[in-house]
Amino acid sequence: MKASKLHDMTSQELTNTLSDLKAELFNLRFQLATGQLENPMRIKSVKKDIARVKTILRERELKETNA
Questions:
Q1: Residue 13 to residue 40: CA distance in whole angstroms
Q2: Interatomic CA distance for residues 20 and 14, integer angstroms
Q3: C-beta of residue 18 within 8 angstroms of C-beta of residue 9
Q4: Can you give the C-alpha Rg of the chain in angstroms?
Q5: What are the CA-CA distances from residue 66 to residues 15, 21, 61 (Å)?
Q6: What are the backbone dihedrals phi and psi of residue 28, each rounded to the nearest 5 degrees, phi first?
Q7: What does the pLDDT look like over 25-65, one tens digit per residue?
């Protein structure tokens, strides 16, 4: 997921996306533990997407406090 696409989303949409990504990460870790995971690199990309969403939410939070 590109950061530019995330910047266009509202804070509520970002929060929903974050919860979806966390659920996906949980499922991927579960699949890894049971040996059913086909693409282990997907875990890395989901973690990075979570970090991107959290960063954008934090930027907006700081922008609101400074404004």
A1: 27
A2: 10
A3: no
A4: 14
A5: 21, 29, 9
A6: -65, -40
A7: 999 999 999 999 999 999 999 999 999 999 999 999 999 99
Kindly state the helix (H) or strand (E) to which residue 53 belongs, with its residue range. helix 41-66
Cα of first residue to Cα of last residue in the chain, in angstroms, is 28
Rounded to an integer, what distance in angstroms lies between the CA atom of residue 13 and that of residue 35? Answer: 32
Full set of structural domains in the chain with CATH: 3-66 (1.10.287.310)
Closest by Cα among 62, 40, 64, 57 to 3: 57
Instruction: Record the pTM.
Output: 0.92
C-alpha pair distances (Å), 34 with each of 21, 30, 44: 20, 6, 18
Query: Which residues, other chains included, contact 6 with Cβ-Cβ below 8 Å and sequence gap of 6+?
Result: 14, 17, 52, 53, 56
